[in-house]
Amino acid sequence: MAFCVSRSFLDPSGVSWTASPFRPSNRPMAPPELHEFRPADPHSDDARPAHFNFDNSYARLPDRFYARVNPTRVSDPNLVKINTELAQQLGLDPESLATEEGVEVLAGNKIANGSAPIAMAYAGHQFGYFVPQLGDGRAILLGEVIGRDGNRYDVQLKGSGRTPFSRGGDGRAALGPVLREYIVSEAMHALGVPTTRTLAAVTAGDRVMRELPLPGAVLTRVASSHIRVGTFQYFAARRDLDATRLLADYTIGRHYPDAVQQPHPYRSFLDGVVARQARLIAQWMNLGFVHGVMNTDNTSIAGETIDYGPCAFLEEYHPGTVFSSIDANGRYAYGNQASAALWNLARLAEAILPLMVEESGGEDAAMTSAREALAAFEPKFLQARRTGFLHKIGLSAELPGDDPLCEELLARMAAQRADFTLTFRTLCGAAADPAHDAQVRSLFADPAAYDGWAAEWRGRLREDPRRPEERVAGMRRVNPAFIPRNHLVEEALTAATNRLDFQPFERLLDVVSCPYEDQPGRERYMQPARPDERVLQTFCGT
Ligand code: AMP
Ligand code: MG
After folding, report:
1. Catalytic residue among 136, 154, 297, 437, which?
2. pTM, two decimal places
3. What backbone phi and psi angles, to 5 degrees, belong to 317?
4. Which of 384, 409, 444 is the last residue of a domain?
5. Which domain holds residue 315?
6. How many whole angstroms separate alpha carbon 536 and alpha carbon 11?
7. Which residue in 24, 134, 300, 478 has a CA-CA distance of 20 to 30 Å to 171?
8. Share of the chain above pLDDT 70, in %
């Protein structure tokens, strides 16, 4: 049974929603059309508080890649939290980061030794409309560090003041959205999803004007890089082929080094980005994550989840779910995320097409090559989604007939308004012993809807080679008990914003940092919102 999704969920640009989440659509998925300042003011030379060992490769690229700009001071920085584990992974000393001087650095009041603060230039398609210049309007890259794993990471302040890319914005962030990003990005990391991470949050001591005056804050974001599809579009839109090539070569060196060895490095680079996006979106969907603002400027070339604005997790499952207040047409609805990602990848292909023309010896060959690269998205996405989903229901190997089994479960969940996360978590118990069926059944408005499916599922489990204990352990590793449920996030943000009470934030962060473990005494955090607690809409909060 295929889903029925009203046309309003279709991408307005004409990209089609895939009727079955596991099979190619009748129409191949979106055969995309390819068409062709101020100087740093080093306001402190006495600051050597935290040793970052910066090595700033992006700041060594030509000037037109960024604006050199220092953070703007805040009046009274106070530490909310340091991510000790992440600091250690980056080879940083969490204790020195938590000192008064460390906090001054995390607030942007002092420039750490070796930092070369820049605001990166980028463009982007926002809800389908191209904006040739966006850029870091309220973020400043302090520099890059090499982590204990040998990988290079960006360390960036967000909410650290105006930059040449701020347009009308104040360059600031409110405390609520900063804590939301902290909680959700760290939850995604713990869930095993590639993501930017949060190293620290500090309050600014200043108010920021939104609809109401709100406490301001600064977040320290860590990413494999902040290069976006929109970074390529920025140079492509200016027909700056040298910069496009330089950016591609830099990005290949940093994220896709194997591409260099290939006969067509830019094509291989595109293949790599396509593969990472396909896998990423499949992971999101198998966890019920709705990003909410999948613009090309929020699409990381490294394949990480970036930009935790209006994101949210599904509670009751429905593929058409939209949370974001600004996503009026459901362009970025839960079930549209694969087509949205492919649309974004097509924009990347367009941006690097001139490089592909050079390497493939002509426009036709380049177009064919780009189309082939994009055509790989759908099968890769479907395979990752299917494999992930089979693991969720306890099947280790795929057999013909599995797609309808998966689709049928989702169809019944949608019709019966079953909680996405709890359905799969309670299925772990049911896989161990049918006596636990009651917990799953109770999540379906009509519990009988589960029974029919469960009978088929049990039949299929008997054909799967794994021992029951192994199966259940495997299911528990992919079906979280805890996600940052929207009402719990709201509760934490409200307490912090209204009362500077960070306890709910601390507790929720702690809970979602071990999402796959049972946490006795914390059952409240597993429960869906009561009707009066439900969050139906989320806001970017910028
Ligand atoms: P986002 O919606 O967070 O993806 O941001 C889109 C663009 O708006 C980016 O160029 C941001 O840097 C910019 N932006 C968002 N909020 C602000 C702000 N408060 N001040 C200045 N620029 C902002
Ligand atoms: Mg963004």
Report:
1. 297
2. 0.93
3. -75, 125
4. 384
5. 259-384
6. 21
7. 300
8. 91
